[in-house]
Amino acid sequence: MNLNNILFAAVIGLFAFSAAPSHATDEAIAAIDAPAPNFALPAANGNTYNLSDFKGNTVVLEWFNKDCPFVRKHYDTRNMQDLQKEYTNKGVVWLSIISSAEGKQGYLTAEDAIEVKKAEDAHPTHILLDPKGDVGQLYNAKTTPHMFVINPEGVLVYAGAIDNKPNAVHADARMARNYVREALDAVLNGQDVADKSTIPYGCSVKY
Which stretches of 19-163 are assigned E, i.e. beta strand? Predict the structure, then answer.
């Protein structure tokens, strides 16, 4: 990475930890070791899915904004796509959620989302559209990416960052300690998640 890119990542990082709107915090009810709040959202494929549809499966919620430099770190290096593919092949349901409001960075129509999935060669089970931000606020999703893991009993067992390298430096994507991988491995092996909550990093969700 050249000096300009490093400086850009540093400047972006100054804004990366901005909080979600206050009403999102006030209304959020998702809590670690508690049942994950149910929701229903339309998917890019035209169907509507409830979180409860996937009870009995381990579920990942990934907040996504295709234009965020922190998201780009994980997609340009294929770190996110490879993680998606590895764990969906193990039966994990992976839901990428777009909570960007219409007219704001990262907003996608259903048709756009299908094209982005194809262009990125991404492997989520579904891309869900949340342009009103209701589900983002329900989970107090603050950043893109912001990651959540739900066990087969429907309990939220992890919430926070994808890894321990809170920057937009591409080279760090594969070198980091990946909290989502650790949480998924623990759940799939019938073990407790060691680190259940970390501080998310990325661009603020564009409610």
Answer: 40-42, 48-50, 59-63, 93-98, 126-129, 143-144, 147-150, 156-160
| Amino acid at position 14, single letter | L
The CATH number of the domain where 35 resides is what?
A: 3.40.30.10
Whether residue 55 is predicted with pLDDT greater than 60 in this model: the reply is yes
Domain range for 165:
3-204
> Would you say 148 and 30 are in contact if contact means Cβ atoms under 8 Å apart?
yes
| CA 52, 56, 60, 64 torsion-angle sign | negative
Q: How far apart are CA 206 and CA 84, in angstroms?
A: 23
pLDDT reported for residue 28:
58
The residue type at 81: Q
Dihedrals phi, psi of 147, to nearest 5 degrees: -115, 140
Residue 69: other Cβ atoms inside 10 A: 22
* Total domains, the chain: 1
Supply φ then ψ for residue 149, to 5 degrees: -125, 130
Q: What is the pLDDT of residues 92-121, one digit of tens each?
A: 999 999 999 999 999 999 999 999 999 999
- Rounded Cα distance, 86 and 55, in Å: 20
Question: 137-168, pLDDT tens digit by residue?
Answer: 999 999 999 999 999 999 999 999 999 999 99
